[in-house]
Design brief:
By secondary structure, the chain is mainly beta. The chain contains one helix and eight strands; from the N terminus they run βαβββββββ. Strands 1-4-5-2-3-8-7-6 form an eight-stranded mixed β-barrel. It starts with a strand and ends in an 8-residue tail after the last strand.
């Protein structure tokens, strides 16, 4: 399955701010550590994809997802930044994935905000 991710202009600005001019790419990831649930959707900032990651088509940035989590996503999705809060919303025509997605910088030598 090919996955396409559309970003609104505020998301593009926020992601650029997170990169701070340093190399990096983004990964949509269901984090199951310490949550006691099916996972919390997060955007990871990574240096490079893992061998099990697959590319997501995006109009602005390199995005990846883990091949084992591919079935959790739809083929066409939208990422929208919340104008009044430092989070994102991921949705598709089929529904909402999450309305409170946070960013975690996992790059080597990253500076967490």
């Amino acid at each position: 399955m090919s996955i396409h991710l559309e970003l609104d202009s505020l998301s593009v600005e926020r992601l650029a701010s997170v990169l701070s001019g340093r190399p990096g790419m983004f990964k949509l990831f269901y984090d199951t550590e310490d949550c006691g649930c099916n996972g919390v959707l997060v955007i990871l900032v990574i240096d490079a994809p893992n061998a099990t990651d697959i590319a997501v088509q995006s109009n602005s940035y390199s995005f990846w997802i883990d091949r084992q989590q591919e079935q959790q996503f739809d083929s066409k999705m939208r990422l929208e930044a919340d104008p009044s809060y430092p989070s994102f919303k991921l949705s598709s025509d089929a529904g909402m994935f999450s309305s409170n997605i946070r960013i975690q910088d996992r790059r080597v030598n990253s500076v967490e905000e």
